[in-house]
Fold these 2 entries.
Entry 1:
Amino acid sequence: MRFLVGTGMSGHGVYLVEGEWAWNLTAGDSNVGTDLSALIEGRVDLQDAVAQKNNVDAEPLSSVVPGLPVERPGKIMCLGLNYVDHIKEGGYDVPTYPALFMRCTTSMIPAGAPMIRPSISEQLDYEAELMVIIGKGGKHISEKDALSHVFGYTIFNDGSVREYQRKTHQWTPGKNFDGTGPIGPVVVTPDELPEGADGLKIESRVGSEILQSATTSDMLWSVARTIATVSEFTTFQPGDMLAMGTPPGVGHAKTPQRWLRPGETVEVEIEGIGICANPIVAEEDIVATEAAE
């Protein structure tokens, strides 16, 4: 199944997506809620929710403006170094334990929304990533059972302000500028993809310029291994998110360095999931527009 949280002709809600059409399940049953939380937490049975498709009209998928899949996730965990060639291009040693950091909710934006290049730095970089949405919570999860804890997979662009990421050994500032982390638009359940979302082509681009191109089979830590490792120290809760790191080709490693520029649109595509596309907008232009209104 494929779900999209967004606003269409029938209002805001959780849409079931099939091909180029979408059905607002929330319009059929308000208990479905305005994001995926009720389905993830099991407060509404998944099959009962999907059955609401029969009670509402289909809408063109293109008419639905995406929102955040989960409005207020408890945790957004991220792997910093999970593709060997990306580790090498960044000048790091291959780690024996995953490099982990967290993102805050104010840094996250839906697919299609403006990705903000901050006024304080021009070094806005892109990072194509697979994002895991946790369905069943738990701690000390075994690698064997880890995939049963996945609700679905989506796309993430881990927009990074490199100048601030590299100011200290801790990456928090550069990874948490407001409006730099696009996610979505579609969340795909595991039954639609290979086990662990393995072997999927992952790519980022601006127009015809391909920035990154790899496959999720290149990941050093698989989805199952990562869930098991992270759950050693924290309790996963339904709706938590886990970003799986980026392949080589990021802008700071190119010669000359390749930063995202206002006026461009950056796309991240993952095979079997879709495309997350966002225009780049300068923060000062947003401030000027808001002041004029």
Entry 2:
Amino acid sequence: MLNIVQADLSQTEHAQAYLHLMSHYALDPMGGGQDLSVFAKKNLIPMLSKRNDIFIVLIFSGNKPAALLTAIEGFSTFACKPLFNIHDLVVYQDFRGQGLTSLLFKKIEEIARLRDCCKITLEVLEGNTIAKNAYSKLGYSDYILDPEFGSAMFWTKSLA
């Protein structure tokens, strides 16, 4: 039996499930192939708990953590409304292919609508065809304002 919840990281079960799934994600090639640092494992839950703009959805299968989605609220200046950016999406390998991604998206879209968000954004690796196909089926696509200028690109600069 699946249990889909908006995480409350003050609950030990939710916090442990979150760290377990994030570690699983980090170790996957799509997550960089290296476990979370000792610093991240120690500080991630306390830091997330201080924020009021982070929304986490967890799925448990029985008492086993099966999937998670982390969304961070941002703001669209053009729409003058909040938006959600899906920052992490993890389905534990034992539960892949069972439609959990769709369930996570359904729940975060419900939360986004309640918060009057204008859109949900996400990043996906160019070579992650499984995720790209799943997101396309859910109605997501690359971001294009004008086809002449192509798709928006997600760039980064590390400050570490």
